[in-house]
Every structure is written in C-alpha cells, then in structure tokens.
Amino acid sequence: MLEHLEPPVADQADSETLAESVFRRIQAAIVCGEIAPGSKISEPELARIYGISRGPLREAIHRLEGQRLLVRVPHVGARVVSLSHAELIELYEIRESLEGMACRLAAERMTQGEIDELRRVLDLHERDAAFQAGVGYYQQEGDFDFHYRIIQGSGNKTLAQMLCGELYQLVRMYRLQFSATPNRPRQAFAEHHRILDAIAERDGELAELLMRRHIGASKRNIERHYLDAQSKTAKPRGES
C-alpha cells in the first residue's frame, strides 16, 4: 500500500550483493543519460570506477544486454544502445498497441483499491519539483510509474513480462530523454488523469483509446524532435 507514498531510496547497496548494486548503478546511469547512448563500455574502466572485479561486472553487463540497454558489436564490444529514429518509432508503435490493450484490461480488472493507489501516484507526480517548474515529468520506476501500475493492473502476466521486464528500462530511457520537451510534462499529466478517469469509470474501450492517443502524442513529440534536430544541422548550399 502507498498511504505514505514517497520516492524510493536510491542506494540499496546494504541489502544487495555488490554485483546487484553495480548492475543497478550502471543501469541508472544509462537510463538517465549519464553514460551517453552509443558509448563504448570499457570493462577495466567500469571495474575501476565501481571497485568491482571483472566477473561480477561481466554478469551485470550481460543482464544489461538482456534489457536491451547494451548491444554487443562484433570486434568492438558492448556499447550503450542508440536507437535510430525508425527503431524508436517502431518501439513506440509497440507501446501504443500493447499498452492500449493493458489499459483496457486494467479498466476491467483493477480493484477499487488499486485505482485509488494510482490516483495517489498522480498526486505524487504533481508535487514533484521538476514538474512544478515545468522542466520534466516524474520518472521514478516501478510502483511510482503510472504506466507500470496500469500494466500490472491488467492482470495479464505475459503482457507485464514484455512491458515491465524485457522492454521496461529501454522505454524508460527514451521517456526520460524526451520528458523535458516544452509543454509536454503538463500535457502528459492531463492525459494521465483522463486515462485514470476512464479506468475508474470501467470504460475499457475509452481507456484503451486514450492510452493509444497518449503514446501517439509522445511518438509525434519524438518525430518533431528529430525534424527540429535535422533542420538545425542542415546548412544552406554554399555555407561553409
């Protein structure tokens, strides 16, 4: 229960193995962009930074590959994933379809207690300092994540495994990257409230439609970002 809902404590090293702690620290650094997309992973450098032997480090790297945060490049080694524009749009097309389905199922299956908890999650998001300043949207993971809660509330274990397991951190990486687009945090928050209202009214058809529109809006936001980036890098003919 989340009666006293607060952000999770970042440092859980006391209750985790060293390998688990390092895995989570590298994961967070990748998702938050501290280790940039496309960066080559240097095992000796990471072992030095985190004070860990190569064995546990390689275990962490293997797990990050399983989450699609790292990719293995022949003759180069592991690199942080950097999706192309087309690949990112494909990812959002998958989200639009699968999360829409999850939202419909959640409207049919979530208990009233789970819906009340979800509303408290949005209340927490609204109090977030970055959101209040208009510079980003609340991006904690797991039970503090609006999308995660709905997917879990769908009651479909296969769907949850796909969206909250295999693809979850990769999606979070790009959600975080584009969350600071001007005006988007407020728009996303309003969309979340409309989705929650449809779930609370047990209107699965509307809930699915609103979730698909919500993710579609994020997809269009990404497309505008790429178009703006292209226009800024393009130079008039003859300009040196």
TrEMBL record:
Record GO terms (molecular function): DNA binding; DNA-binding transcription factor activity
InterPro entries the UniProt entry points to: GntR_C, TF_FadR/GntR_C, Tscrpt_reg_HTH_GntR, WH-like_DNA-bd_sf, WH_DNA-bd_sf
Alphabetic keyword roster: DNA-binding, Transcription, Transcription regulation
Any one Pfam family match given in the protein's UniProt record, by short name: FCD
Gene3D superfamilies: GntR ligand-binding domain-like, Winged helix-like DNA-binding domain superfamily/Winged helix DNA-binding domain
Domain of life from the UniProt record: Bacteria
SUPFAM superfamilies for this protein: GntR ligand-binding domain-like (SSF48008), Winged helix' DNA-binding domain (SSF46785)
Occurrences of domain HTH gntR-type (ranges): 16-83
Descriptive protein name: GntR family transcriptional regulator
Organism: Aquipseudomonas alcaligenes
